[in-house]
Amino acid sequence: MTTQHKVPSRRVAFCAALSLLVSGVAPLGAQEADTAPDVAGDSASGLNIPQNLKIFGTNDPNLRRAAVRVNGEIITGTDIDQRLALILSTNNQSISAEEKERLRLQVMRNLIDETLQIQEANALKMQVEQAEIDQTYARVAAQNFGQNTQAMDAYLLRVGSSPASLKRQIQGELAWQRLLRRNVQPYVNVSEEEVKELLERMKSSRGTSEYRIGEIYLSANSQNKAAVFENAKKIVQQLGQGASFVAYARQFSEASTAAVGGDLGWVRLAQLPNELSSVARDMERGQLVGPVEVSGGYSILFMIDKRQVLMADPRDALLSLKQIGLSFPEGTTDAQVQQKAASFANGVKQMKGCGDVDERAHALGANVVSNDNVRIRDLPPQLQQLMLSLQIGQTTPPFGSAKDGVVVFMLCGRDEAQTNDGPSFDDLMNQMEDDRVNKRAQRYLRDLRRDAVIEYN
């Protein structure tokens, strides 16, 4: 059974920015699923549990002690709480206490993996220097706060996280990449014949559809299948309410694409398992579907984009636009907004092309901003279809709000999209090598977990 949702637009999360900055070689390996059996109902029938049980002892939230030791290194409750706060800051909706606890357990698993990766790098004398961590941290700040690291520090503290927590995550990802470059990548080979064969297959499939898909994969076995399915449904529910797919994929997905937000890149249906290809074929851009039962577990799919193989995509056209905007003074009533917006729309209709915009906009009390090289696919989905059918000198319908004002776009020029020649030989070879590195990375991390001494408090 699968459910379908449209995922609303959302701001870029720190997790997404971080993964784009530091995932240059290969993503982190798989994350472990919550395999704890459901003790309710029949599964608990063999246990002697009193109906009116009483918990002895207290839990003082102000007492910070070790939550887990990984090969003797302590991960505290504070460490977990601060990382959890970073994830919660990307969620536009309030979440239940049950959901928060589930996220907290996943964060703890991620911190265990992160600690193992850092320990392995240190043991092999491949430590990540503090200067490199600080440099990456500054790049994240530049992407989100315009070079102002103090502003990002303040934001992290305000949401209940800390700069130290984010820097620790950066250290873990950099350490893991360093390990993969030395211990995995040199042993991965892709022959020229393999690349040439794939290029030929792509050329022969010219005009067929390609899909850019996000995936969250949760492994399951016969013992925990029902619990994992329920877990997947809860994740789908949170995503449907506006949670960041990228952030949830990083924390929950057990696929090798977890560190890049579950992004599978551009794939064709033939490259997907049959269970997923049959679902992806009918998905629209922005649609969320899942959980879908696959071999070994469940997948949640998000359709990021679609295109035709080796064909020009009209949404890659570059537009020259004039943005005509009218703002409303504070205190303007709804009736006044309606009146002013109607008058503004009538005035826009009288404009005779882009050369006439500035003078008439001034008469309307509106401002004009010119925007060149705007790619259609970068616009909100609601505007993309409008722009595809717009002719030079035509405008969109007015849109906006009493708070933000009303805006129209006038199309002043269009450079049509060029034919897509597909990936180059080198790009395709790198993609195939990365895929094989990712699979070996999963095994590498699995070995680190197996050999670790982990003590829970």
From TrEMBL:
Lineage summary: Bacteria, Pseudomonadati, Pseudomonadota, Alphaproteobacteria, Sphingomonadales
Molecular function via GO: peptidyl-prolyl cis-trans isomerase activity
Protein name: Parvulin-like PPIase
Organism: Caenibius tardaugens NBRC 16725
Signal sequence segment: 1-30
Chain's gene name: surA
Pfam families (UniProt xref): Rotamase, SurA_N_3
Keywords: Isomerase, Rotamase, Signal
Record-annotated PpiC domain positions: 208-305
The organism's place on the tree of life at top rank: Bacteria
